[in-house]
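Standup notes
- HV: blocked on the assembly model, inputs below
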Amino acid sequence: MLRIGVDVGGTNTDAALLDGDSVAAAVKTPTTADVTTGIRAALAALIENAGEQARSARAVVIGTTHFVNAVVERKRLNRVSAVRLCLPASHALPPFVDWPADLRELVRQDVFLLPGGYEVDGREIAPFDVRTMEDIARRIADSGVSAVAISGVFSALRNEQERRAREIIDRFCPGIQITLSSELGRTGLLERENVALLNASLFELARKTVAAFKDAISGSGLDAQLFLTQNDGTVMRADAAEQAPVLCFSSGPTNSMRGAALLSGCSDAIVVDVGGTTSDIGMLVNGFPRNANGVVEVGGVRTLFRMPDVLCLGLGGGSRIRTDPFRLGPDSVGYRLIEEARVFGGDVLTATDLAVARGRIAIGDRALVADLPEQLLAEFESETRAMLEDGIESMKTKAGDIPVIAVGGGAFLLPDRLAGVSEVLFVKHHDVANAVGAAMAQISGEVDRVFSGVERDKAIHAATEEARDRAVLAGADPQTLETIDVEDLPLAYMPGGARRVRVRVAGELEAL
Amino acid sequence: MSWILQAEDLAPIALGCAMLGSGGGGDTHCAIILLGELIRQGHRIPIVDPAHLATEEVILTVGYVGAPIVLAEKLLSGGEIVSAIDAMRDRLGRPIDALIASEIGGLNGMVPLIASAMTGLPVVDADGMGRAFPRGDQVTFSIYGHSSVPAVVAGEGGEVVIITAASNARSEELTRALSVQMGSKAFSIEYPLSGEDVRRHAIPRTLSLARAIGRAISGTIGAEARFEALASMLDRQWGIATRRLFAGRITACSRDTRGGFDRGMIEIAQSGTDGQLMRIAFQNEFLVAYRDDALIATTPDIISIVDADTFHPIHSEGIRYGQQVEVLAIEAPALLKTAEALHMVGPRAFGHDCDFQPIAALPA
């Protein structure tokens, strides 16, 4: 089946047409202030490039930094009321307490705490209080707020109370958007609750963005279903993305890593994605990005949820070079590279100029950098090497050499050999790896649950079956499903040999 | 010197508490936020120098007992603090004059500050460990013969339990068992002390020390400058020796959870193929360090693994392959280095077949 992948970056909007596992066409177009116009332009360019076959694509997968940018820029966010099931515990640090003041002022509507939550062994801290919850739901309805986030102590282990709270709010506040912390975040109340609050604050933007993306697709003369890429490297239907925009936060680096896996045929490797200003280093395990296992800050808010583990270095094609003394970056000319870099007739010395002088790539006019001294080139080479080797080493989980896949517009900045690296793979279409990654369009299903009094094998089997059902429901072809992640944690302090099992499966998008 | 806690003291104190935690002690993030809120609401938190305590004053040792995962879900709220202190006052039949930390390392170094805001009682600028240790009875108060009872354990559900007539070790076991029953998070008061006890047997001015360490590390940029600022401040103002034991990258970390403690071995290698190797054994806290198989530092000296760039201490749970780190050692206070103290907190107390090797003896 033909799929189109689109990656909206800060500088470029890239698009690729994928036929099975091969790239049928790819284009690079500038990102526009109004993102949708840029997507429409990219789709038009792709159709022109690929010819009529592009029109038979049945899926358009878009990866966008739209939602994370809204949080970072504090724009286009809606107000949110918070409901936390915790009393008598955890009341002194209410929802929003550790947010930066400006963001809190913008998003916080009302905060409600009520009895509930669970102990670490699954007992209730306090029973769910229907009367109090109904009272809170009435006040939420009166306030007219459009989105609510519900959290509860240890809800990542048990979430019945969060679900009961949702039912009641749903009944009293028709049409309101409700986010449960247990459906998005991990253990760590404040951080999981923050994920839910951020998600709820993006509700209106997500609805508008998805509608605009759908318009861009139909406006381009395509009869294709819209998907959005998510943090784990798989995709979700537009209606699911509307409910969980936080899961799109890190789609840029994730798409590049997935694309690198496809383009290189290598599913366990380090990926270095060199852009105009920075390089992202990530680790592929089984073809998917490795997750971060700690707190990730988004726009100054601490979060704990499914995010790829990415290390960002200040090395890009547009990084400025100072010569006396030698200094690489951290500032960059960014998208003005094609005007300001020396090889393009400008007067700013950039990393690209040095790569051209060293013969790593032929762009612009090499004669314009012929005067650069050998010593400067050597200094640049050794500085780049040190940065990359250091970054790559710190992303490994064990000692030993590992392959590196070089992608992104600035992939030519990578040396052919690096310490701790078995080989550096340069691949065709490296500059649109992100769009290729989006077009791969794998669908996943995940289950994360505590099993009590069940043997290990049976628990994992039950969780896998349910994860497969979820993936199929989300649009995966059952024939292609593979298990990509099994985590099994015995909970020593819980009675009855309880264990927490997390299973994730992924497969191809079912032919539509 | 006595002082009043200010909002801007919180971040440096938290950083210093983490450094003195020697890889252990709970996360201070929630304590910083909660104390920031309490100060903003107008609570005044006085810190008194132990030298200013009157002989007959009554001082209570306070802290939280529990599992880190639980403290990440059931956030500090402090309701149990007031009922626990009320129960202790009734039991002793005397007014309480001040609070002191059981351990300065990690979260518990900041718990008396929260308790002070809740009760109005001042906090003594001192603690019972000068660092963090795995067990509650590894405090100087126990080492130098003070009884931990009567002790109070309080859960956030409102339950308060008083322990009397138990040995210090037994009281520690009961406190842990009660904490599990209370949802693996309980507020504990033990070692009711006199002003004179604190003057003689507490590690003095450790809150000020934590603040000074935090300020020194964050007041400058770059590993060289940060170490220089830290070492010269500790040497000149506190007479404490500091050594930079090693710089390198984590190349291995093995773990094993037994008896509620996280134990393991960390390996750090210098860059280059023929570089030196450091191995550090831990049990929650970093306990013993070897450089190329030669014993170089041991508990009770404080061994700290810090980020090579920021110098922020890394918790033993947070050690991962590939981290670029420096290993620092800070000299333990004299009260931890006597024969009776080493019996409780020296390397042999943790099952290591070696004697205490003071880092102050190493070349600077």
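- HV (later): unblocked. The interface with chain A takes residues 29-30, 33-34, 37, 67, 69-70, 72-79, 156-158, 180, 183-184, 249, 251-252, 257, 318, 320-324 of chain B (CB under 8 Å). Residues 223 and 355 of chain B are 31 Å apart (CA to CA).
- Next: hand off to the docking folks.
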